[in-house]
Amino acid sequence: MVRLPPPVDMRELLLALKDVLTRAELKGHHAIQREALSVRNRMSDVLKFLGDGGFHAFEKLFNPEEGRLGIVVTFLALLELAKEHLIEIMQAEPLAPIYLKSLAIRDV
User: Fold this and answer.
1) ∠97-98-101 over CA atoms, to 5°?
2) pLDDT values of the chain reduced to their tens digit, one per residue, 108 residues
3) Which residues span the domain enclosing 86?
4) Residue 98: its H or E element
5) Closest by alpha carbon to 53, among 99, 8, 98?
6) Sign of CA dihedral 54, 64, 85, 13
7) What is the pTM of this model?
8) Residue 3 covered by a domain
9) How far is CA 80 from CA 22, 76, 84, 86, in A?
10) Of 59, 74, 77, 81, which sits with the fewest C-beta atoms within 10 Å of its C-beta?
């Protein structure tokens, strides 16, 4: 018998994102500089991070030192990867931690 994990509600993802953004504001600074952040590049970075095939905590994918822009680009990359069925997003029950796993098949 195959047991499928329950789907993750979009509200749960947004609540987790809010927590990450709050932590980033605590560590952030106000130096202004232009950075070129690419959603496509971040998608590649996320897939590399998840490359071992295991489950990883949602919060571990974000670098609070990148500030709000880096967090938003990472979140957009996660949504795009989920849309393309390249990652799996799991949550055992409402308000439980969110975990991600790569579904991308690596060529050996």
Assistant:
1) 135
2) 887 777 788 888 888 888 888 887 776 665 656 557 788 999 999 999 998 888 999 999 998 888 888 899 999 999 999 999 999 999 988 888 999 999 876 543
3) 10-102
4) strand 98-102
5) 99
6) positive
7) 0.67
8) no
9) 23, 6, 6, 9
10) 59
